Each structure stands twice: as structure tokens, then as C-alpha cells.
TrEMBL record:
Keyword terms of this UniProt record: Carbohydrate metabolism, Glycosidase, Hydrolase, Periplasm, Signal
Cellular component GO terms, alphabetical: periplasmic space
Compartment list: Periplasm
Keyword Magnesium belongs to the record: no
Organism whose genome encodes this protein: marine sediment metagenome
Protein family (similarity comment): Belongs to the glycosyl hydrolase 3 family.
Protein name: Periplasmic beta-glucosidase
GO biological process, one term: carbohydrate metabolic process
Origin organism lineage: unclassified sequences, metagenomes, ecological metagenomes
Claim: Oxidoreductase is one of the keywords in the record: no
GO molecular function, one term: hydrolase activity, hydrolyzing O-glycosyl compounds
Amino acid sequence: MTIKKNIFSILLLTFAVFNITAQEAIPEVEALLNKMTLDEKIGQLNLLTPGGGIATGSVVSKNVELKIKEGQVGGLFGVSGPEKVRQAQEIAIKNSRLKIPLLIGSDIIHGYKTTYPIPLGVASSWNMELIESAAKMAAKEATADGINWNFSPMVDISRDARWGRISEGSGEDPYLGSAIATAMVKGYQGNDLSNSQTMMATVKHLALYGAVEAGRDYNSVDMSKVKMYNQYLPPYQAAVDAGVGSAMTSFNDIDGIPATGNKWLITDLLRKQWGFKGFVVSDYTSVNEMTAHGLGDLQAVSAQALNAGLDMDMVGEGFLTTLKKSVKEGKVTEEAITIACRRILTAKHQLGLFDDPYRYSDTSRPEKDILTTENREAARKIATQSFVLLKNENNVLPLKKDAKIALVGPLANDKNNMLGTWAPTGDPQLSIPVLEGLKNVAPKARISYTKGANITNDGEFAKRVNVFGLRVDIDTRTPEAMLSEALQNSENADIIVAVVGEASEFAGEAASRTEISIPPSQKKLIKALVETGKPVVLVLFSGRPLTISDEFTLPVSILQVWNPGVEAGNAIADVIFGDYNPSGKLTASWPRNVGQIPIYHSMKNTGRPAPTNRFEKFKSNYLDSEISPLFPFGYGLSYTTFEYSDLVVEKKKITQDELVNISVTVKNTGDYDGEEVVQLYLKDEVRSITPPVRELKGFKKIFLKKGETKTVSLTLYANDLKFYNSNLQFVSEPGKFVVFVGSDSTAEMSAEFELE
Ligand code: BGC
């Protein structure tokens, strides 16, 4: 007992010297650290990719095998399959001096091989259980293929649809974004990281990456602390609170300092204020890129990144090649390297890799766990819930299963654009095109297909989006010939279904657009189809909100389907034929035109708010456009209708720590069973810093049978009334609050209460 006690005190003392808490100290890790040379510690901070995933920078690592043998690699990504992962681990275990297993990372952004919709689509489901289960499914598949560490969730708030990576996140709102971040971390990590069916998650990209100026990828970010804390940081913090194992820094700078070398961000905020216990990895060569940002040579920026609190260097090898020299020159301490190394070894320990380095290399698993019928069914369900019905002209939808349909459009019989951006682990050839899906779900429908138009006729643009394979295939026929074929084909149809929009790589990384409308080739097709006088349904693909004011004014119905994943066609058919009644709601406002960007529901009132639907001089409005978006945050129709009544706020006066219980009655007044997302928005009437006009502070997705009425309860917690004031204290201030409840962010039904 005494001996044990003594060992414990010695350990505690060691931990105190290295500035760690007893909670973080793992004897096995400490014992290993004691044996490690400086070079071996630096080796653990090095993350390489031998290629095989998507190389998003110009570098792919060289001599990876040799480096593993020499103890110069802490983790790999772009390697998958239990055999290959076993081989990689064997190189480390059998040939390196200390036999330290490798982290095996990957970007599993929306499903592993069973690709489900892009994150912006999944978010539109507003269904947290579904989102958690989707992440869980991805973890089961990925771990079956050897992966133990995932570069997801991406939780960057974005209010700029020009930015291609808006597709990878949850949209504009910090409250919803935080709920989704929590659900994803739980789904990936489960309760036990050493379980061979869970993987470590990475919250990214810390921080503010979604606010790059002008929506241009990798651009600068400059933002007040008040805006940061209130609007952009909450989802990262939510992921930390949910126990996320690692965090990835972003490419952008914050207050003039690149995130990767930003001590305030990594150490003061993430570690000290938020209590993050995991390790921090850079983004792809983002350490090296600090040189291009203007912060010095590779040695200087690597030292800055380590001193800022970065633990692992992705691909750039700045740590590997310069840290030892920096120790000698006194620019970094060995202690800082030890601390970073400890965090990485701790992660490996949590994943159970020291107990069994081959834990994720079970060759019997891929067949049992990947792309199973059950998983494909789940992907189909997730997709149906991600679709947003933007318009249903004359209630044309759902279609009858024996309808005579002219199916038209460049995305109607296409496998290359179903999965969406950032799906390097999925196989586009396994996806169900819309034509096939319609036939599967409605075998009696008479469907004739023509392409009608190219995704774009612009060859230069096509080249830019075809970097990962053929996404835009420009037909050898002339646009006129394609159009006339489509029109001819439509002549005998009852209805035209046109599948149009963006190709996958119109969005995603380094895929920013200054013009976010439907490409001219397809606009022309849509117009010509409408001129036939037949009812037209647009099935709209995109990785971002689009500007579709022109199409909206046409007599068409519009179903927004994002990029639905491997079960695309089946899911679209489920909704078009009414087997599933659409329930998705937008999680980012859709602007009328690019000039309105950034646009989001929680904007400020300003001192000169504009009148509704009317221009007035010297008010905050535009000469040439309305100020409201085309579709507000939270918007989405159903085949049925819902009526809200009896909004009740339980107490009219509350004290600082009290809850506010709110109830509302919702009735399904239409002809179909359906789901509704009941949304609660809050307006803080008076406070010390200018409040947003309203903010999302609660929601509940409910199912109502045709004719059914339910009373829905929602609760506002003390924190929901709080905000960061100009001293960055998280406070609520006394005064009047207005609650709005309804089916989108323009909800008008309201009630008030007062905080004493
Ligand atoms: C992206 C990250 C990604 C990394 C590794 C980078 O270019 O910004 O989101 O995780 O590449 O693939």
C-alpha cells in the first residue's frame, strides 16, 4: 500500500513538472515517454499521407515506410483496408525501436462507403437521432476498414454560400450547429473509444474558417471577439463538451495570426477556457503555409505552431525537420515537445492501440459491416429526410405511381454527382441515378429520359471541376439538338421532372463561386420546358444555397435534394411518389442574389431598420433588391399543412436560474401524415450589446397523422438567455424577451416573458 502510494506521489510530481493533471496521466504513456529520445518524440508529431485519399495540397509524403521504421511517424491517412492498415502497423511494431502503433486517419465526412447526403443536407433533417446514427454507421464501416481516427465533424458556421465548403457543415446557426456537433461526436466516438467499432472524432476547422472574406477559400478572417463568441465558436465548444478526441486548426488567420500558430486560440481558448483534453492537429500543410501568410521561414513557423499548442503537423514535416534545431537554439523547449507527444500517445492509448495495434485490422469485418443492405437502407432514409420542398405549384407533388413522366436533365441519369463533394471513400459507380430510382419505386410509371442540356457548356469551368474525375461531361451533340430532343420527348408526358443543378465539385474545398445560380445551359432548358405548358418539377442538386429567384417565379415545383449519396435515386423517388412526405428545413438562408451575402436570420436590427416589403430612403435596405432572403432559415414545405395555435409561456416573470416552459399546439390540417420541425426563436429586447432580431433557441421534430393535433413543449434553459457581453462574460441581462414559435425563422406567433 505504502509503496503504491509512494509511486503515485512520484508520478504526481512528474506530472506536476510536466504541467499535466493526474487525470491525464497514464502510467503506460509516462513509461514510454521516459524511454523516448527527442527524435522519437518529434516523430510522433508527424502525420503523413502516402496518397490514396484526396491530396488537398501540393504535397504527398515520400519515403513513408522508411520514416515509420525510423520512428518518424505518429500517424497516417489515406491508407485503408484491414490488410493495408495491418501492414502499416506491422512496419511500426516490428521495425521501429519503440513499437508505437500508428493513428490511421481519414476524412469520413458523410458516410464511409455507404455515402449519405452531404452534411448541409443531413443538417436539413433537423433530426439529431438520425444524425447520430448516421455518424455511428460511418464509424462502424470505417473501423471495419482499418480507420481509427476521423477528420470530422466540420462545424464551421457559414453565412456565405459562395464558399464551397458550406456544403461540409451545418449551415448558418450556432445553436443548431452545436446540437449537430454533439450528435456527430457521440455517433463517431460512442462511449468507449477503445471499442473497435468507434473512432476518434476531430472537430474542425478551429476556427472561423466559414467566415473567409468574400467566400473565397483559404482567405483571411477578421471578426470581433463578440461576434466570434456569440455566433461562430459555440459549435466547436459543443464538440469539446461532447468529449471530442482531437481538433484540427484552420487555414485562415484570426486577428492576424494563422490559426495553426495562434496561441490564444489553441492554448488560451481551447485548452484553458474550454478544458479540451485531446490533441490538436494542423490542417494539410497549414504549418508550412504560415510562411506564405508572411510569418517567417519553416523553422520559425514550426516553432511558433508548437509554442502555440499545436501537437501534430499534417503532411508538411515542418516539425520533423526543424524542431530539433529549434530546441538546440532555445526557440522551443523539449518539454513542449514532450507535452505534445504525450497527448498523441494518450490518444493512441484511448483507442486501445497499445493493447492491440491490430484492433482495427480484422479482415472478416469489411464484408459484414460495409455497404450492407441495412446501411444502404439507412442512407436512403437519411437522404429522404434531408430533402427540402421549396415550392409545390398547384400541389403537383406527390406524383402518381402510374404517371407518364418525361424525365429530363443532365443530372437525371448520372452516377458521378450523386455522392457529393468530400466523398473520397465512396464509389460513385455504386450510386443509384434518379432514372433507376424512379423505375424501382414506381415500376408502373411510364418514364422516358433525355439529357436535355449539359451541366454547363463552359469547357474551362468543366475542367476545373473535373479534378477528381469526370463530373461534368459535355455532350458531343449541340445544345440545340439536346434541347429539341428533350422537348420532343416531353410531348406525350403528363408531367416533366427536370433534374438540374450543380455537379458535386461545384462545391467543396477550393470550390468557391461568385455566381451561385443554376448554370445558363440548364436555365435555358428549364425555361423551354416550362413553355410547353406542362407541369414541371425541378429536382435541384447543389452543395450550397443557390440563387434561384428566376426559377422560383416560374410555375414550377422545386424539391431541393443537395447531393443525396449512394441511394440518391431511390430516395428521390420515395419523396416524389409520396412514400415519404418531405420534412427537411433549410439550415442556411437562400439569398435572392449574390449581393445580399452574407445573409442569415439572426442579423441585427440596426438603428434604421427597413420597413417590410417597401423601399424607404435612409433606411437599411437596397435600391435594387428586397432585404429578405428568397427562402428563410428553417424554411421547408410538406405535402401536408400545419397550423399553430395556443402559444403559452408558463411564467411571465422568471429569475436568473429558472427555466421557461413553453407549449404550443400544432395540428396537421392537410391530407397527408407528415413531420414538422417546430422552431422556437428568441428576441432579447434590451441588452448591453446590440441583439440579433431573433435567434434559434429550440426545436422539436414531430410526427402528426393527418388531422392529428399535438401539444408540443419546449424549454428555454438559463444558458439560452445568455450571451457574451463586451467583456466576453457569458451573462443574461434583466428585461423583456419575446418568444416566436412556428415553422421557420419568420414565425409570427409570439409571447413574452420577463427576466428579473
Ligand atoms: C482539409 C481538411 C481535411 C484535410 C485532410 C484539408 O485540405 O481542409 O478538412 O481533413 O485536408 O484530408
